[in-house]
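Key result, reporting period 2: structure in, sequence out.
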């Protein structure tokens, strides 16, 4: 990928905090030719769909995450949502990244 962009904005107000982050990965221009050659010449033995994936995903990917939380005394609860739009994207060949992920975290300082 030739272009990468990352950004994050956080807001804090009294006990509350929230934030969003964005990532942009441009189209994967070059991959090792061996992946496509194996798939082209041996489709019955090696066919993970790289050629089809690259043909159908010609633009970059925007991925957005969000988080919000509350802190009181020495305790904190945070809700995080990664990949809000539930995009299917890959940073490396044959490695599809995770879909939407929702986390609820509780922490306490002792």
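The corresponding designed sequence is given below.
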């Amino acid at each position: 990928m030739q272009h990468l962009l990352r950004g994050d904005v956080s807001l804090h107000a009294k006990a509350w905090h929230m934030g969003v982050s964005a990532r942009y990965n441009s189209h994967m221009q070059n991959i090792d030719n061996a992946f496509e050659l194996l798939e082209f010449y041996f489709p019955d033995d090696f066919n993970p769909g790289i050629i089809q994936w690259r043909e159908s995903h010609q633009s970059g990917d925007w991925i957005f995450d969000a988080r919000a939380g509350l802190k009181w005394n020495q305790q904190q609860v945070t809700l995080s949502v990664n990949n809000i739009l539930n995009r299917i994207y890959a940073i490396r060949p044959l490695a599809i990244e995770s879909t939407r992920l929702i986390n609820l975290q509780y922490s306490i300082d002792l």
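The CA atoms of residues 9 and 80 lie 14 Å apart. The mean pLDDT is 86. This case is discussed further under Risks and Mitigation.
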